[in-house]
Write a structure and sequence with these properties.
Blueprint: E1 5-9, H1 19-35, E2 42-46, E3 49-53, H2 60-67, E4 75-82, H3 87-101, E5 108-115, H4 124-138, E6 143-144, E7 151-157, E8 161-164, E9 168-169, E10 181-185, H5 191-200, E11 205-212, H6 219-236, E12 239-245, H7 247-256, H8 262-280, E13 286-287, H9 300-307, E14 314-315, H10 323-332, H11 336-339, H12 346-349, H13 361-368, H14 375-384, E15 387-391
Parallel strand pairs: 5-6, 5-7, 10-11, 10-13, 11-12, 13-14
Antiparallel strand pairs: 1-3, 1-4, 2-3, 4-8, 4-9, 7-8, 12-15
The structure holds adenosine-5'-triphosphate and magnesium ion.
């Protein structure tokens, strides 16, 4: 079947009142950006919904798949457009639609017909009855069920008529650009790409920071993080990725501080640097893939110590997730296969055999005093030598 239009439905939450217009505009912009490479689509908003007029030729499956990546869309309905609104023509086209769409006619249905133009000669309830009768007559295996129909057939008569009955689920969430911007600490693991995806789903624009430690970590480990940023950018939009050379800081911490505290202290410096870059990028929050108890650096006590260096809010969307739940999302967004590629992470290289699991903040701060001589300069150098990669798919 040829669908000349797609109807986009979005949730009502958070879009009441004066926010509605900006929400709808942001959603239209996102849809246009996603569909740009697939053809000349025209996106129009009208009366609480968004209408996409499709070009004469386009790849339907690819278009739907792409729209399912747009946050803010709750459902998509492919629409058949009927050019002439003469009632006999509408009836004939609707019967044709039903025939093509439902080869097996053993289903229950209800017709939901509306006329936008009150001058149209048939009133809405009459349109429902007439169409229902015509369908029953043409396809006697069908049955009407007013309350729980298997097929809800919607007809809208405007200057043209539109018919649709299928609802394809969208990604949900809010359109990118309707919340602020946040800095994602993106490593090559499973968790942080999922965390970025989840925050972006709430409408937050994402910038990212990755810490590497060449030559202890390889180019391929870095490429893996770039690949992950590209994968999530299919949902989150283009991502500016800041790549920070963390080697000298890590070595210095390694020389000066007790080894069981290494991870915590490193994490604290990562947060500090990420926050500086966040400020520069006009971000108003940090995002990590931490989850309580997953590893030593993610116990409540460790999180308390890491968090203490930040003045910005730190968002941890996975905080109460089990690993399997995170893996499920990672697979759903096509990040998993990339995340499990076995490249070294800068945290794992200098990791202690027995890292502290219950660090005390005052003890960590005391150890960090040993870094006083050079650390500010090293942080400054790391910030001045950031490599920026624009990641888009
Ligand atoms: P992930 O799967 O996201 O790598 P993880 O289970 O390996 O997480 P940790 O290594 O303790 O856990 O990291 C916790 C969080 O800290 C990560 O989710 C990420 O947000 C951040 N992080 C860790 N290492 C890096 C890094 N090298 N660069 C940027 N962020 C990092
Ligand atoms: Mg990691």
């Amino acid at each position: 079947m040829e669908y000349k239009a797609l109807l986009v439905k979005y949730g009502e939450i958070g879009i009441k009142g004066k926010n509605r217009g900006s929400f709808e505009r942001a959603l239209c912009t996102q849809i246009e950006m996603h569909l740009e490479r697939l053809g000349q689509f025209t996106v129009v908003r009208e009366q609480g919904r968004i209408f996409i007029a499709c070009p004469d030729e386009y790849d339907y499956d690819e278009t739907i798949e792409e729209l399912q990546k747009v946050f803010g869309i709750h459902a998509i309905s492919p629409v058949m457009v009927i050019e002439s609104i003469d009632w006999d023509n509408i009836t004939a086209e609707v019967l044709k639609y039903v025939d093509e769409k439902y080869p097996d006619k053993h289903f229950t249905f209800r017709v939901n017909a509306k006329r936008a133009d009150k001058h149209y000669p048939i009133e809405s309830p009459d349109m429902c009855c007439k169409l229902g009768e015509s369908i029953l007559h043409a396809y006697p295996e069908t049955k009407v069920d007013i309350h729980t129909p298997q097929v809800l057939l919607t007809l809208e008569v405007r200057n043209r008529a539109y018919i649709y009955s299928e609802t394809i689920p969208g990604a949900g969430g809010m359109p990118i650009g309707t919340a602020g911007k946040a800095m994602l600490l993106l490593s090559g693991g499973i968790d942080s790409p999922v965390a970025g995806y989840m925050i972006a789903k709430r409408g937050v624009e994402i910038e990212a920071t990755y810490f590497h430690a060449p030559p202890y970590t390889s180019e391929r480990a870095k490429q893996k993080v770039i690949d992950l940023a590209k994968i999530i950018s299919a949902y989150c939009g283009p991502i500016k990725l800041n790549i920070v050379n963390f080697t000298d800081i890590q070595l210095y911490i390694y020389e000066q501080c007790p080894h069981e505290q290494l991870t915590i202290i490193m994490r604290r410096y990562m947060m500090k640097i990420a926050e500086k870059l966040a400020d520069k990028g006009k971000c108003i929050g940090l995002v990590t893939g931490e989850s309580i108890g997953q590893v030593a650096s993610q116990t409540m006590q460790s999180l308390n110590c890491t968090n203490a260096v930040c003045s910005m809010p730190v968002y941890r969307p996975l905080i109460a997730f089990d690993k399997q739940d995170i893996v499920d999302i990672s697979q759903k967004i096509n990040a998993f296969e990339t995340s499990i590629q076995p490249f070294e992470d800068c945290c794992t290289i200098f990791v202690a055999k027995h890292p502290v699991t219950h660090p005390i903040l005052s003890g960590i701060e005391k150890s960090e005093l040993k870094l006083a001589e050079k650390i500010d300069e090293l942080v400054e150098t790391a910030l001045n030598t950031v490599e920026v990669v624009e990641c888009r798919r």
